[in-house]
Amino acid sequence: MRGGWGHHGRHWGGRGERSSGRGEGRARRMFDGGELRLVLLKLIADEPRHGYDLIREIENLTGGAYAPSPGVVYPTITMLDDMGFIEQQQSEGAKKAFAITDAGTAELEANKELVDTLFARLTALGEERQRTDSSSVRRAMGNLREVLVNRLRSGDVDDATLHEIVALIDEAAQKIERL
Questions:
Q1: In the chain, what's the furthest Cα-to-Cα distance?
Q2: Which of 2, 47, 89, 135 is most exposed, with the fewest beta carbons within 10 Å of its own?
Q3: pLDDT (0 to 100) of residue 147
Q4: CA 175 to chain centre
């Protein structure tokens, strides 16, 4: 799983981030309404692309925290094509590459501020992912979990030892918080 939501999840914000006003326990969708349409259009404007390229580029922008599902990307590409914002280019193989049209460029210009905001959101998610998801921290946390599970499963942990384990974990958390 990536970002706590799965490789092709529809949610964003890293692990456990919630939006306000939608009720506790519901994560905010990465894109609302026509936002994904604008993101895909901008990426196609940057260079002709096919569906998988678009998914991979969004995943790269977010540091692996989010990748839209093919079930959302491909219908959106079809819609952009039907709207005349993109057109299929000659390509080799089964993959259809698309390029932006003049109408697509005008659509991006008309929504420039929103497009900039959307890409800032994707970039911020990638930066947060990089800050909070380093492999050495994950390794250390996994190591701690394994040691705890093995120790507690042994069945010979008395109350004093359990309290000592809890105190060590609490102390480590306090020291990390003060860094």
A1: 73
A2: 135
A3: 87
A4: 30
